[in-house]
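Reopening this one. Same input as before:
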Amino acid sequence: MNTYKITLLALLAALAVVGRFAFAFLPNVQPVTSLIIVCGLLLGPLAAVLLAILTTFLSNMILGMGIWTIWQVVAWALIGLLSGVLGKYPRKIPGLILVIIAVISGYLYGFIISLTTFSVTGKFLPYYLAGLPFDTYHAIGNGVFMVLLYPIIAHFFRNYAEKHFNLQNTN
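Same output, byte for byte:
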């Protein structure tokens, strides 16, 4: 990973942390998951995992750390890995598929976060079912953020990358 990619990663981390605070008034609606997916698609799985770790720890320094922090890292890192692997395919991914991936990632994130309660109390199903409306907010938010953010970020990344490095997927 060269300094140009690290710079982009730092910018994405700043955007994700600020976005997490900016949308705090909406339950479970935040751009973090979509940014991690975009990062994985364009910069690769390693960059997406690093973004997941950076975003989680930087934002939780202010929001508060807890047992959920580890599960947030696990959930976002897994989403980043999956999108990074998907981004390695040289074919263009249609926008609708990206939105579907973002929506599914919202539910995957919620499922993994629900494992926190299982690890503490042993009761998974009631907690997971109670959280499904919030997972739905997260999923819808991911879809909207993907529609809004992906074209803009991909455009700027393409222009920047032409001079410094190759993107792995240039949708």
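So the earlier flakiness isn't reproducible anymore. For the record, DSSP finds six helices and no strands in the chain.
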